[in-house]
Write a structure and sequence with these properties.
Structural Genomics Hypothetical 15.5 Kd Protein In mrcA-pckA Intergenic Region, Chain A, Pseudouridine synthase, nine-stranded mixed beta sheet, four-stranded antiparallel beta sheet, 8 helices, 15 strands, elongated
Length: about 280
Amino acid sequence: MKKENSKPSRGKSDGRNKKPAPKADFSSRPKKQREEKEESSDSIEGMRLNKYIAHCGVCSRRQAADMVKAGEVTVNGQEMREPFYQMKLSDVVTVKGKVVKPEGRKVYILMNKPKNVITTAKDERGRKTVMDLLAGKVHERVFPVGRLDRDTTGLLLLTNDGDLAEKLTHPSHGVKKIYHVQLERSMPHADLEKIRKGVELEDGIAVVDGIDYVEGTKHTELGVEIHIGKNRIVRRIFEHLGYTVERLDRVYLGGLTKKDLPRGFFRKLTDREVIMLKHFTGKK
């Protein structure tokens, strides 16, 4: 696999790129928003609670179900632990004490995540999060799709489309992700073949869809294609074989690349890119 060059940004991210790229348009569209909200309201009746929370832009349906079971959700002031509770138009839902309502406008943000930034909405230890990079620039409620650990850089999608987020993160949809891995020492072909055949970890066999050396790096850098989304899976594969991952960068996500998107910057997806993502996941 060829090494992808990505020129990092300097200074604080302001959401703008040096090179021309699709401009992020976060302007409101009152008429369209009213139409979308009316359509959303009509479809609430009978909707499952976890799906409703996802429509509110809080998280994916799977994460919403976990939150309901954990007692973090109330309906009309009463704790609700049944994710499949069917909504009524008059229901008032709170998540962690805050009333949530469906987002009228779907937003899709692509970020080139920098190092030392947490992929979460809030951090109890006060560390910088990906949401801090969006503060004051994206006014809709969005959440990160999947996770990149603190030291991992690269492509991260943020959205308020819970249905799409669910499909992008579920391994059954086989959404392709490619990582650029830099090791502290060269890897011989024998270990490369072990990874190709599948490495058995404590939670099962980790199977990659493809792996190869990055040209001209003396076998210290590799490209890894994968679709499973287990926690820290790429790092764990190499650590299992005794390697230290010095740098891990996600360079491809479901057809999206880092082209014209420096480290620490973000942009809105184009309509064409959104259609492409939905095509990959089978979501219409």
